[in-house]
Amino acid sequence: MAKSLHLQRQKLLPEVTFDLDAATLCIRGFSLPENSAHFYTPLIDWIKGNSAVISSDNRVYSFYLDMEYCNSSSFIFIVHVLRILLDCAGPERTRIFWYYDDDNDESMECCHDLEIALSVAITAVARDITVAR
């Protein structure tokens, strides 16, 4: 299995960067795929394909979610992706960061929903609106 996975950002699809060497996983942008299963299955397969490495090392895995918008079917698949990572690395070696805009209460609600769905703490990070995305 490849040590990294990178999907370029498209109009309605987020950029995805999963890097095993750096122990980082990042999803950034809009997530409005026509078929969420088709888009997110390669991410799930990548984690499962690297599960032996993820499970056996002692590194902390950081998962960054910097979503401008995420539809409900994407949210369900993101929960699934995170559950698989948590199963491989364990909650003690998984850090999840949720980026949000200060003026977007809905984004914070999504973060809270994700915490409930996963039963783990998520670090909410205020997005610096002066930084170009």
Q: How many domains?
A: 1
Q: Assess the beta-strand content as a share of residues.
A: 25-35%
- The N- and C-terminal alpha carbons lie at a distance of 30 Å
Rg measurement, Å: 14 Å
Largest sheet: 6 strands, mixed
What name does CATH use for the topology?
Answer: Transcription Regulator spoIIAA
Mean pLDDT: 90
Order of helices and strands: EEEHHEHEHE
Helix content: 25-40%
Which CATH class is shown? Alpha Beta
Going across the major beta sheet, what is the strand order?
1-2-3-4-5-6
CATH architectural group: 2-Layer Sandwich
State the helix count.
Answer: 4
Q: Low-confidence runs (pLDDT<50, min 5 residues)?
A: none
Based on CA inertia axes, which overall geometry fits? globular
Structural class: alpha/beta
How many strand elements? 6
Name some characteristics of this structure.
133 residues; Transcription Regulator spoIIAA; 6-stranded mixed beta sheet; 29% strand; globular
